[in-house]
Amino acid sequence: MLQLTHITKSYEGQSLLSDISFTVNQGETVCLLGPSGSGKSTLLRIIAGLESPESGVVAFNGIDITSTPPHTRDFGLVFQDYALFPHLDVFANVAFGLKMKTASSAEIKPRVAVLLEQVGLTEFEHRKVTDLSGGEQQRVALARALAPNPRLLMFDEPLGALDRSLKEDLLNEIRTILHRTNIPAVYVTHDQEEAFAIADRILILHEGKIVCEGSPQDVVANPCSAWAAKFLGLGNVINGSKGEGLKVETVYGVFTVQCGHKHSKGENVHLLVRPREVRNGTNVIKGNVADVLFQKDGFKVTLENGLYVYLESPPKMGEEITVNIEVECLS
Amino acid sequence: MFFAAPRLTRFLLWLIPLTFLGLFFFHPFARILALTFTPAALTDENINLSFDVLLFTLYQAFLSTLLTLALGLPSACLFAKFDFRGKSLLRALTAVPFMLPTVVVAAGFNALLGSRGWLSFLFPLSNFQFVGLPAILIAHVFYNTTIVIRIVGNALSRLDPRIDQAAHTLGANDFRTFWHVTLPLLKPALTASALLVFLFDFTSFGVILLLGGPSFSTLEVEIYIQAVKRLNLSLAALLSLIQLLCTLIFSILYTRIISRNTTQTAPRSVKSNLRKPRTLREKILIASFILLLSSFFLAPLLALPLRSATRLEADRGQRGEVQYGLTADYYTELFVNRRGSIFYVPPIQATLNSLGYATATVFLSLLLGFPAASALAKPTRLEKFLDPLLMLPLGASAVTLGLGFLVTFPRLLALPFIVPLAHTLIALPFVIRTLQPALASIPDRLRHAAAALGASPFQVWKNVDWPILSRATLSAATFAFTISLGEFGAAILLSRPEYPTIPVAIARFLSQPGGLNYGQAMAMATVLLVLTTLGILLIEKLRLPGAGEF
Asked: Chain B contacts of A154, Cβ < 8 Å?
C-alpha cells in the first residue's frame, strides 16, 4: 500500500525530516507520535501532497506518486480544526468530494445519508456547519473525508481541540469505522493515550527522525531510546557508568542490568527505572519520602533523590523506604 | 474639556458646526429641492434627458467597476498570497491614485494617452488613441483598484488556508477550489468592494469632464453643463436630486452588506500564509503581473512630469523649425501674464489663490471640527443622532454642493471666500474623523489629576490636551489643506474667472489649443501632484494607529 522511502525535507536551512522510510499496509492504522515540532504534521502533508519532499519517494501500490497533485491522489484528510467549508451546509460539505468526482446527485444523496448515519448526524443535513459544536464539526469532517471512498485516510491531530470524554467517544467511532472499511490510515498526534488506543503500529518521531517503531505494547516494553522513554513517561531515566559484568554504577546506587554486548566497561549508559514495585527483583532503590501524591491507580511517591515510584499504600513523609524495582538498559 | 454644566456645554459645542451646516448645506439642499419640484424642471424633455444621462452614468460606472474588479481581484490575490521584494512599495503605489486630485489623474492620462501625449508621439502612425470612454474607464480603474485590493485582500488573507487544502484533498483542482470554495467565501468582500467602487465611479466628475469631453455626460458632468454653460438651473437641480437619491441607495446597500458581513462568523486569523513563488511557471507569471501592475500605476504618474518638461509640438501652431526636447518653458510661462492669455493674471496666481483658499479651509474646518469632535468624543444619544448628520456632505457630490451655493447665494459669488466655504463642507467630515479618536483617547483622569495639582482650566488644556492633540490637529489640517488644494467639482462651479484655483486653471489650459497651453497644464498639474504627494506623506506620517481608513 503506502510506502515512503528516504523522505527528506528542510525549511530555511533547518532540517524538518531526515531519511524517513516506512510502509502502511491494507487495513492498518499507523500512528505518527511525537511532540510539536517533531515534523509529524509535515510528514503527513507530504503524504497528502500538500507539500513536496526534497528527496525521497512516496509510492502507493507500487506507483510513485511523489509529484502527483493532492486532488488526484484519492486520499482523505481530516484536519485538526476541521476546515469545514463555512459557506456550505452539512450535506454539501459531505457531498463535496463526491461532486468533485462528478457523481450524479442520484448517487450522492444516498451516499451522504449513509455517512451521516455512520457518524450519528442523520438529522443534521441542512444545518449550517458554523452552528455545530466541536465534536459535531469533527464528525462532519470525518464523514466528508470518507465520502469519496479514499484509498488512504489521514488524520492530523483530529481530536486536539476536544475535551476528554468527547475524545474517547470519537476515538472509538474512528476505530470502528477504520476497522469496518478496512481503509489504511495514518494518524498524527502528540497524545500517547490517543496513539495507544487507535494504532496498530506506532512511529515515534523526534526532530525529524523515526526514533522508535512498533506496536503499542512493543514501544512501551522497549522504548528504543532515553528520549522516547522520557517522552512516553515510562519511568525514571538515569545515567550510569558500565562496571564489571552486569553492574552499572549510578548516583542512586549500583544496579544489575542486562545491557547489550556492545557496551564496554566505563561507558556511559542510560537506564530506565520503571516506577512499579515488583515482588522479587534484583534491584532496589532506597530513599527518604519527599512527596506523596494520590493518583487514580496508586500513590506516586517521590524520593528526596528525585526518583519516583508508584505504591499501593502511602508511606509517611520523610520515612526511609526501600522498593524492589525493574531496571532496563536503554540503548 | 470645560467644567461647565454638561448640557450647556454640549449645546455650545454643537451650536457653531450645526449653524454652519444648516446655513451652507441644508439650506442650499432645500433650495435644490424647491427648484426641482417646479413645472420648469419637470418637463418631459428634462425628464427624458435626465433618464438618458442616468443610463449612461450607470453604464460607465458598471463597466468601470467590472474592469476594476478584473484588475483588482488578481492583484488582491498577489498581495494576500505571495511574498516578494518591493511588495510594500508596490502596495503603496497602488494606493497613491486614490488620494490624488482628479485633475492630476486626468492630466496624467492625458499626457500618456491623449492626442498630444506620449503614446501618440511615440506611435504617430498608428491611429491608436485612448480617448473618450476607454480613457475614462482606464482612469477609473487606476483610481479605484486599491479599494478592491484592500477589501478583498483583507478577506483573502483572513481565509484559513486549510479550507483550500481540504478541497484539494477531496479531489478539487486549483480552478474548482477557487470556483467552489474561495470565490463563495469572498463574495461579501467582493460585493462590498464592487459597490464602493461603483459609488465612486458613479459620482466621478473631473476624470469624465477632462478625459471624455462634453459628449460623455454623466449626471455630474450634465449638472455642471446645465448650471454653468446653459444656465438651466432647474434641470441641474433635478439632476442633482437624482444623483443624491442614487448615492443614498448605494450607500445604504453598502452599509447593509458591511454589517451582514461582520455578523458572519469571522474566520480565525492564521499565522501568515504568505509564500514565495515556487515553480518556474509561477515565478514568470507573478513577475510579469508585478511588471504589468507597476507600469500601469507608474505610467501616468511619470508621463505627467516628463511631459511637463518636454516639448513635443509647436507652442502655438507656428510653421518652420520647432525645438523639440527638454524645456523649462512651461514652468517659466506660468509666471508670465500674456496678452490673449485666458486669464487676466499670470497663471501662477492660481497657485497663490489655491494656497489661500486651502489655508482658509484649514482654519474654518478646524474651527468647526474641534467643537463637533469634542462632543463626539464622549457620545450621548444626541451625538449618535447628530454624527451621521455631520457626515452627510460626504454623500453629496462636490458639484451638487457647488450647485447648491450657486442657487442659494447668487450675490455672494462675487466674493472670493465662497470657495473655501464649500471646501470646508467637504473637508469637515475628514477633520472630525481625524480629531475625534485623539480627543476620545485622553482620559478625564488626566485632566482631573492636573486640576487637582492646581492647574487652571487653560493650563489643563495647554499641558494635557494640546500635547496629545497637536499631532491629530496637524494631520486634520493637512487633510483639509490637501482636499481644498485638489478639489475640482465645487471650484469649477464657484470660482470666478479672475480667481481660478489650480485645478480650474489646469482644466482651462487643457481645453485651449496650442502646445504652450497644454504644456502649462502639464506643469501646473505636476505642481499639484508634488504638493498633494507631500500632503499625503505628512498625513501617513502622522496617522494615529487605529484611525479609520475609508
From this structure: 169
Question: What does the radius of gyration of chain A's CA atoms come to, in whole angstroms?
Answer: 24
Q: Which CATH number describes the domain made up of B6-263+276-542?
A: 1.10.3720.10
All structural domains of chain A with their residue ranges: 2-224, 235-330
Chain A residues lying within 8 Å of B183, measured CB to CB: none
Which of B160, B171, B177 has the CB atom closest to A83's CB atom? B160
Query: Which band of pLDDT confidence, cut at 50, 70 and 90, is reported for residue A190?
Result: very high
- DSSP H helices, B309-414, are 329-332, 348-377, 381-395, 398-408
Residue showing cell 481540504: B166
Q: Where do we find the cell 483583507?
A: B154
DSSP count for chain B of H helices, then E strands: 25, 2
Distance in angstroms (rounded) separating the CA atoms of residues A30 and A44: 11
- The answer, yes or no, to whether residue B4 has pLDDT greater than 50, is no
Partners of A79 on chain B (C-beta within 8 Å) are 162, 165-166
**Contact assignment for A96 to B172 by CB distance below 8 Å:** yes
Q: A92 vs chain B: nearest CA distance in angstroms?
A: 11
**pLDDT recorded at residue A89:** 92
Going from N- to C-terminal start, the domains of chain B cover 6-263+276-542
A66-77, pLDDT tens digit by residue?
A: 989 999 999 999
Q: Mind listing the pLDDT tens digit for each residue in A12-31?
A: 888 899 999 999 999 999 99
List of residues 6+ apart from B506 with CB closer than 8 A: B103, B107, B521, B524, B525, B528
| Chain B CB within 8 Å of residue A75 CB | yes
Asked whether residue A331 carries a pLDDT value surpassing 90, the answer given is: no
For A79, the closest of B166, B177, B181 (CB atoms) is B166
Q: How many CB atoms lie within 10 A of CB B302?
A: 15
pLDDT for B360 equals 94
Tell me if chain B has a CB within 8 Å of the CB of A130: yes
Class of domain A2-224: alpha beta
Q: What is the reported pTM? A: 0.80
* Cα angle B360, B364, B369; round to 5: 145
Which of A46, A47, A79, A151 best probes binding to B when mutated, by most B CB atoms within 10 angstroms? Answer: A79
Give residue for cell 511588495: B87
Q: Can you give the pLDDT at residue B315?
A: 63
Bridge-based pairing state of the strands A201-206 and A75-78? unpaired
